[in-house]
Specification:
By secondary structure, the protein is of the alpha/beta class. About 35% of the residues lie in helices and about 25% in strands. It contains 13 helices and 17 strands. The strands form three sheets. Strands 10, 11, 12, 13, 14, 15, 16 and 17 form an eight-stranded mixed beta sheet that branches. Strands 3-2-1-4-5 form a five-stranded parallel beta sheet, sandwiched between helices. Strand 4, helix 3 and strand 5 form a beta-alpha-beta unit. Helix 3 runs antiparallel to helix 4. The longest helix has 21 residues. The radius of gyration is 21 Å and the shape is globular.
Amino acid sequence: MPNALPFQPLLFGGDINVYSVARAFYEAYGVRSVAYGKYPSFPCHGSAILDYRVCPDNEDEGIFLRNVRAVAEEFPDKKVILLGCGDSYVQLAARCKDSLPANVIAPYIDGALLDTLINKEQFYRLCDEHGIDHPATFIYDRSMGRSFTLPWGPPYIAKPADSVAYWACGDHSLAKVYICQSWEELLESLDHVYAAGYRDHMVLQEFIPGDDSYMRVLTSYSDRNGRVTTMCLGHVLLEEHSPHGIGNHAVILTERDEVLELKIKGLLEALHFVGFSNFDIKYDSRDGRYKAFEINCRQGRSNYYVTGAGHNIARLVVEDRIEEKELPFTMTENRSLWRMVPKRVAFRFTPKRYHQEMRALIRAGADHHSLVCPADASLRRRLRVCKNHLGNIKRFDQYNKLPEE
């Protein structure tokens, strides 16, 4: 079926982030997104709701531009909406904005500001300037060796200041975040990171107590004029704890916190930020404050929780960049449940105090799973989703602890 719309989505990446964005476009407009990923992998490969194209050298700037130009030529009479679904692709889109074809729209800030924000060291400096709390932080340089001290005790958090450079090392033994239970474990983790070839700073932080249910995720959309139009706060109930998936959201309940959201809105608008932003935040019960961990200058991998709450993320972009509407500022109020895991896992590993509302939302049809898509439900697809469910059951049993209730 030909695309009669005045736009064509173009996505980069191959994970659940890409699939969720493509699903939003399909559900809102019936359009199949073109997506370039590095591998012929689930969930994008073989999907009926997107045109997935494999390109192993996707992250090379020249290849990236070649692919964008090819799609721009393929749809010469349409505006091509370019969305990166990973930090490396967002960096490429921002840096190459001036080299993109005339019919391509890349809703991103300039490369210099983006590099500042995705560097956690610089992000915390901006948080201090704008009154946004964050965990106690120490910036480690490898020249310090083991000759340094920290003003707090274990457990210690260690993560890269520059995540793009970190993953570019290509060492699959690297962890997304290190949670170190002792000083010796922290030193060993630092040694491992730098032995893998990483050269930038490491961010060392105090561990904020509390299980996954103390986490929050805030997704915002800022229009072409740098004005925040939509904010959707998610109360995370469960995260992954496997080495490579640690911190990935698995269960989210939407909620609203006007004070927190307006504070973040002030930062974004002061920076004249445009496009999607995504903040990881944790509630610190010791002082009653929400503390920001990082900003992603894109929609997060759990972005379907926003669409499920009634704010289809594809519509936000199209109404702003294609229809050029002036959108009112909205903070999501709808309560909805989002999952990346089967119900069995969601109820087994989340605190029981949330179960009554979770069941009520499921009964009301306000329950959403990113992979369970009625428009993408061939037998082969449903079997692959079942395999994903079984993998999650096994992985959460292996790595996650039962809630203390």
